[in-house]
Amino acid sequence: MPTVETVDAKPFPYQFDMDHAALICIDMQRDFLLPGGFAESLGNNLANVQPCIPVIAKLQAAFRKLGIPVIHTKECHKPDLSDLPTAKRNRGNPKQKIGDKGPMGRILIDGEYGSDFIDENAPVEGEFVISKPGKDAFYDTGLHEYLMKRNISNLVITGVTTEVCVQTTMRCANDRGFDCLLIEDGCDSYFPEFKEVTLRALVAQGGIVGWTAQSEELLKVIESIWKLDWT
Questions:
Q1: DSSP class of 212
Q2: Is-contact 144 138, C-beta < 8 A?
Q3: Is the backbone peptide bond immediately before 2 cis, with ω within 30 degrees of 0?
Q4: How far apart are CA 26 and CA 136, in angstroms?
Q5: Helices (H), the chain
Q6: pLDDT in tens, 68-106
Q7: Closest by Cα among 98, 103, 101 to 82
Q8: Computed from CA positions of residues 138, 95, 105, 47, in that sequence, does the dihedral angle turn out positive or negative?
Q9: Per residue in 43-78, is it b (16+ CB within 10 Å) or e — as a string?
Q10: What are φ and ψ of residue 82, in 5° steps?
């Protein structure tokens, strides 16, 4: 018999079975989070996306200790740019475009230093890593098949940025029948006001896309069940 757990969440408590859950960490890449990366070259304030890093690290540690899958996504493209639409490469008319040489290698190209994960949130051996060409972690990836094979129905979502890849993935997961919990302090945006509005939109109309909660509420549930100390 599955054990149903309950997390204090918005717009109402989130119930799930840990045996059918997974943690998804979206795009915690050097190009988006570190000086010299693509995001900084676009004029973004990196300080606004730093707070979620230790939160995600704490959640990763908890899920790993429990043996619950941790999934990582990175937005990147093939070296020959065959999966990069012209409209995306030219978006915003940047001085440095995707595929160009940057301080950390070719920008958002799979296998380059900048497209890889920051040390604090990097995958460990055996964890599922997705290279995705777009905002949706399900598009042109094996994510859906991975989740179905493991009978996963509940997704705990973290990462950057809240209003772009995080929101897009959560909406697409919802359309596929997954119950999603977005960790409010485990996601960030270069524009705090965008994050605030996105969090409100996702839980509007009785949770039209899913739930949101603070990480401490989820960790509190884990600690109470397994008597583990995450401090």
A1: E
A2: yes
A3: no
A4: 10
A5: 30-33, 38-41, 52-66, 86-89, 143-149, 167-175, 192-207, 215-226
A6: 999 999 999 999 999 999 989 887 667 789 999 999 999
A7: 98
A8: negative
A9: ebeeebbeebbebbbbbbebbeeeebbbbbbbbbbe
A10: -70, -20
Percentage of the chain beyond pLDDT 70 is 96
Alpha carbons 164 and 160: distance in angstroms, whole number:
8
CA-based nearest residue to 213, from 5, 20, 19: 5
Domain spans, the chain? 5-226
In CATH, which of 3.40.50.850, 2.130.10.10, 3.90.1300.10, 3.40.250.10 is domain 5-226? 3.40.50.850
Provide the mean pLDDT of the chain: 94
- Tally of CA atoms within 13 A in the half-sphere of 25 that contains its CB: 28
Nearest to 84 by CA among 73, 96, 98: 98
Please tell me the distance from the alpha carbon of residue 113 to that of residue 99, in angstroms, as a whole number: 13
- Both tokens of 82, joined, read 């065959």
Known catalytic residues? 27, 132, 165
* Sequence letter at residue 14: Y
Two tokens, residue 89:
């490469």
